[in-house]
Amino acid sequence: MTDFHHVPRASRRRPSSPQQHRQARNLGRRSLDNHRQWLIKQYGSICAYCGLEIPPDRTTLDHVYPRKGQQAYDRPDNLVLACRPCNAAKADVPFISFIAQRRSRGVFLLHYGEHLSDWVKDMVRQASEREFLPPVRPRFVPHTNGEQETGTN
To answer: Residue 85: in which H helix or E strand, if any?
Structure first.
């Protein structure tokens, strides 16, 4: 395995010709297709957000942690299968907000995303497993309009 910092500078440059650029894009596409097939083999053709079974040719790959503003965050530990409606609903929404909108998404994501990074799974657990109400509810105090209760009925 090559340490990126020790690779000569010339070999780190982007492809210069259109043909080299297409070849590099095709390698990336093949890698994503291979990962999609691995996910289907691992979990079945099931959306990691809603748990619905979808035809394998209708699956999409979703970046759990949005890649907008990131460079090349197509790592396998950040990709899950998603149905088109869930992928479109998530778009570039931060994944914690997306999970918090419907907590069942977090449950499905933890099940169908066992391969995700530990820090991603921890954040999903925190967003989907927190309590709906505080453990101790405040006591209801009736409003008396400034009058004192006399204790008689």
So the answer is: helix 84-90
What's the mean pLDDT when you consider all of the chain?
76
Residue 121 lies in a domain: yes
What does the block give as tokens for 5? Answer: 């910092």
Number of domains the chain is built from? 1
**Is residue 3 assigned to a domain?**
no
Instruction: Give this prediction's pTM.
Output: 0.65
Q: What is the CATH number of the domain that holds 53?
A: 1.10.30
Buried b (16+ CB within 10 A) or exposed e, 39-65: beeebebbbbbbbeebeeeebbbbbbb
d(CA 46, CA 36): 11
State yes or no: pLDDT of 13 exceeds 80: no
HSE of 7, CA atoms in CB hemisphere, 13 A = 8
**3-state percent breakdown (helix, strand, coil) of the chain, nearest 5:** 50, 5, 45
| CA angle centred on 147, ends 144 and 151, rounded to 5° | 85
- CA 143, CA 121: separation in Å to the nearest integer? 45
Backbone φ and ψ of 76, nearest 5°: -55, -30
**What H or E segment, with its residue span, contains residue 34?**
helix 18-43
